[in-house]
Design a protein that fits this description.
Layout lengths: L1 H38 E14 L2 E14 L3 E5 L6 H8 L7 E6 L2 E2 L5 H11 E4 L11 H11 L7 H11 L15 H13 L5 E5 L7 H18 L2 E6 L4 H4 L2 E6 L2 E4 L2
Parallel strand pairs: 3-8, 3-9, 6-7, 7-8
Antiparallel strand pairs: 1-2, 1-4, 4-5, 9-10
Helix pairs in contact: 4-5, 4-6, 6-7
């Protein structure tokens, strides 16, 4: 009888130890997954987007899954009409997905109120556009400073900060020029300075070289990389230009409705 009891006790201890080890493994794995998730400043999970066109539900994006870490550059490449700008608008909270979720710093971006998303875009995000989107009646200096005014960030050091940023993009001597007096490359450099002036966490760049020649395109890419490294800013860009690949930490290409990682 004593022998049977010892065997039973030993078996019971083995079972308890096995359960404990399984629970410990699960906790470690969960903690590791949480840590990895927290490393990602922006993440898209199973994103999809459909548009109703002439009573037909047309698929634009399907099962998009991407993650980007802080201070990294991700490029999304594809031809016109592939869904690049649509995806960028969803990632930045400007457009709702039809399915899936966008996580920004552990928040589900597409579940937030419009006011909260607007607040995040104003404080944490910067935007660069293909056609510059400068205010025509403001000088280069005023266009950049205007971003600080919009975010109520003007203080006694603001003017010096704007001047320093203009110098860093090589336009200190053009600070009092209006957009109509600037070349395409110069306009985009002002737009870059405007996007960085409020120290954003993330920059969304929609075809930032799409309206420039090859020489100016290269200058803008070099400048964008330099600014992002100096300010530790994360970049998500979309373009048809494969030269973006060499400047990026990650690169994806549109294949039908989905993305394929190419770097």
């Amino acid at each position: 009888m004593a022998k049977i009891f010892r065997v039973f006790l030993l078996s019971f201890c083995v079972v308890i130890c096995s359960i404990f080890l399984m629970l410990l493994f699960s906790l470690v794995q969960a903690e590791d997954n949480i840590s990895k998730s927290m490393d990602n400043i922006l993440e898209a999970k199973n994103l999809g987007k459909n548009f109703l066109v002439e009573n037909n539900n047309e698929c634009i994006l399907k099962e998009i899954n991407i993650q980007i870490k802080a201070s990294q550059w991700m490029s999304l490449l594809g031809p016109s009409g592939s869904g690049k700008s649509t995806l960028l608008n969803i990632l930045s909270g400007l457009m709702m997905p039809s399915s899936g979720q966008v996580f920004y710093e552990s928040q589900i971006l597409n579940s937030l109120s419009d006011d909260k998303k607007s607040e995040i875009r104003s404080s944490d995000f910067g935007f660069v556009f293909q056609f510059f989107e400068l205010v025509e009646h403001l000088t280069a200096f005023e266009n950049i400073r205007f971003m600080l005014e919009l975010n109520s960030l003007v203080d006694q050091d603001s003017d010096d900060k704007v001047k320093a940023l203009l110098e860093s993009v090589g336009l200190g001597h053009r600070k009092n020029h209006f957009p109509r007096q600037l070349s395409g490359g110069e306009k985009q450099r002002v737009a870059l300075a405007r996007a960085f002036i409020h120290d954003p966490i993330l920059i969304f760049a929609d075809e930032p070289t799409g309206n420039l020649d090859e020489k100016n395109s290269e200058k803008i890419l070099e400048l964008l990389k330099s600014l992002s490294q100096n300010n530790k800013t994360t970049i998500v860009s979309v373009s048809h230009d494969r030269n973006f690949i060499q400047y990026s930490n990650q690169a994806y290409e549109f294949k039908g409705y989905c993305l394929e990682q190419i770097k």
